[in-house]
Design a protein that fits this description.
About 10% of the residues lie in helices and about 45% in strands. With about 300 residues, it is mainly beta. The protein has 2 domains: about 160 residues, Outer Surface Protein A, domain 3 (Alpha-Beta Complex); about 110 residues, Fusion Protein Consisting Of Minor Coat Protein, Glycine Rich Linker, Tola, And A His Tag, Chain: A, Domain 2 (2-Layer Sandwich), CATH 3.30.1150. The strands form 4 sheets. Strands 3, 4, 5, 6, 7, 8, 9, 10, 11, 12, 13, 14, 15 and 16 form a 14-stranded antiparallel sheet that branches. Strands 1, 2, 18, 19 and 23 form a 5-stranded mixed sheet that branches. The longest helix is centred in the C-terminal third of the chain and has 19 residues.
């Protein structure tokens, strides 16, 4: 069944911080908590409730971040300095369940080399390359069954040339030519293919707003107001300086009901539970429509927890 996806603007939750700089805390009671993950010759430098900083034999420093409630590693990031100011090397991210989410290389703020992301079942999701911080060369995305979903070519960070998309069964769905990121034709689209939601789901309280964009703005405003009113920064997360972005995913089904609410990277158990609780407080929805038909729509809501 086809599901459409919508990404909300980032919602940021601030609270006071017990520390001026992230990942600088150290306590003997946490020393050795995550040392089983150290490689041969690697030395533990400092440890805290949800992370460990170490130094490798090649001189690089490594930050490992964990989902502390289960000790599952969620981030592996290499740095040039012990204060973790300059990234230089490998970055790997995992979901809370231990499945790998992505892997790439970064120097400073610039990604380089190969980038790969994965589904929770281990199947490759996307793969492409960076050069000077921009996507370059062939780019492939896959369905979770391993079938190619799309393929294209990037030049200086922009689509350039023929981009093809396919059905889950491997049949050609669309073929569009791009020049420096701009489509030069509308693409040959198969009958029945639907790419964009024409009428997004909206809050029932915004139903009387007739203009689509104004109704969408009304719904977004009401949803964010509800989230800001209900969500709290958990006390234990504040105490231990846990920060980061949680993406809550949910589906508005054909009846307007919110279903399939989940988080694949929750920072810690208290933050994950708080996000799930707050999202479920959002008012009732009306379903989305595409070409006159009611459709299921997936939403991704990023929530940033930031200590100041």
């Amino acid at each position: 069944m086809k599901i459409f996806t919508v990404l909300f603007f980032l919602l940021t939750l601030f609270s006071c911080s017990p520390s001026s700089f992230p990942f600088q805390n150290n306590a003997s009671k946490f020393y050795g908590k995550y040392s089983a993950d150290l490689e041969s010759g690697e030395k533990e430098i400092r440890s805290w409730y949800h992370y460990m900083v170490s130094k490798k034999e090649n001189g690089k420093y490594v930050l490992r971040i964990y989902y502390p409630d289960t000790k599952q590693i969620t981030d592996y990031i290499e740095y040039r300095d012990d204060l973790l100011r300059f990234q230089d090397g490998k970055v790997i991210k995992w979901r809370d369940d231990g499945s790998k989410k992505s892997e790439y290389n970064q120097r400073g703020d610039v990604k380089y080399g190969s980038y790969s992301s994965y589904y929770s079942n281990g199947q490759l999701s996307t793969t492409y390359k960076y050069a000077d911080g921009e996507r370059q060369g062939k780019s492939l995305s896959y369905y979770d069954n391993g079938q190619i979903q799309s393929e294209g070519f990037y030049q200086a960070g922009e689509l350039h040339g023929i981009r093809k998309s396919f059905t889950r069964e491997g049949d050609l769905r669309e073929e569009t030519e791009y020049k420096n990121g701009v489509p030069v034709n509308e693409g040959l689209e198969k009958e029945g293919d639907i790419k964009l939601v024409e009428i997004k789901p909206h809050m029932l309280a915004c139903t009387d707003v007739k203009d689509n964009k104004a109704r969408e703005a009304c719904s977004t405003k009401l949803m964010l107001e509800t989230m800001y009113k209900n969500i709290k920064y958990p006390a234990d997360a504040r105490e231990y300086g846990i920060e980061g972005i949680v993406v809550v995913t949910f589906i508005i089904d054909k009846s307007g009901e919110m279903t399939d609410v989940y988080i694949d990277r929750g920072l810690c158990e208290s933050i994950k539970k708080e996000c799930l609780r707050a999202v479920k407080s959002i008012p009732e929805w009306a379903p989305g429509m595409q070409r006159g038909k009611i459709v299921r729509v997936q939403y991704n809501l990023p929530i940033k927890f930031k200590l100041e």
